[in-house]
Amino acid sequence: MFDSKPLLCVDNLVKHFPITKGMLISRQVGAVKAVDGISFTIMPGETLGLVGESGCGKSTTGLLVLRLIEATSGSIVFSGIDVRALDSRELRALRREMQIIFQDPYGSLNPRMTVEDIIAEPLRIHKAAAGAALGRRVAELMDLVGLDPRLARRYPHEFSGGQRQRVGIARALALSPKLVVCDEPVSALDVSIQAQVANLLMDLQDQFGLSYLFISHDLSLVKVIAHRVAVMYLGKIVEMACREELYGNPLHPYTQALISAIPVPDPKVKMKPILLKGEIPSPINPPPGCRFHTRCPYAMDVCRTVEPDLVSVGEDHLAACHLIKRKDPAPAK
Questions:
Q1: What is the pLDDT of residues 145-161, one digit of tens each?
Q2: Domains of the chain: residue spans and CATH
């Protein structure tokens, strides 16, 4: 379905935010383990959905991939380039191909700039267009995302939430990137607008061959837009598979609980959600062993002491759970 060579390779990515104490002499007394050793790939033209509860490290992962924050350790390779090894000038050049759509369409746009200036800003920074060509490119981008180019001189407060997010999408596409990190791009919008923006993103992907890292807590939306899905819990990926496999055959107890909570539109179908007990443990002091064992209804003694590896449990299906038997790949013939 996709090219055999990944566009993005993330390996054992870690981000620990230090906790310090003291004013004159500051010392580290702990760390928030926001992302704690995750690995994944994204192919050209593919959408990888990254899902999980609030605070699991999804948005931090997106910022790490773009180096908007620096990783503690791990590897990020984009188009064969080691992103973490780049200096500031090299990183700026690479950012033409890596962009982000932020969650909040109200806070991500400068209220003192017109829509024209907001969309044109990346083109000016990278000297991709100037003069009349710049104006034509802005009009083209606005038309592309469903906005009337005649509104280019207006300010963000004169637009609705859905229109503002379209401005954010146009800004992200200005430099024709290969990868776009979508950080919950519809969660702040009305339900009636969410489907329109999601459909726009899928149409743009088909038109330009974009790759998405689509971060969301809405599993029903991810089921529609993503080709593969990775489930995060407390800084770890606990299951990853193609969309049909993950939703049709969830193996990790946490994934099963998330999918059981998706509303079913057919009133004849009776679905009993799996209710998880307790609160999510603190990322400052995650529990030993499997991080989900404090809430898992099937936890065993081994779960409390030994952390399970993310291993193959089927074709292109990975899971980290002691209940699941590992399926080693078949030997080459």
A1: 999 999 999 999 999 98
A2: 42-69+86-279 (3.40.50.300)
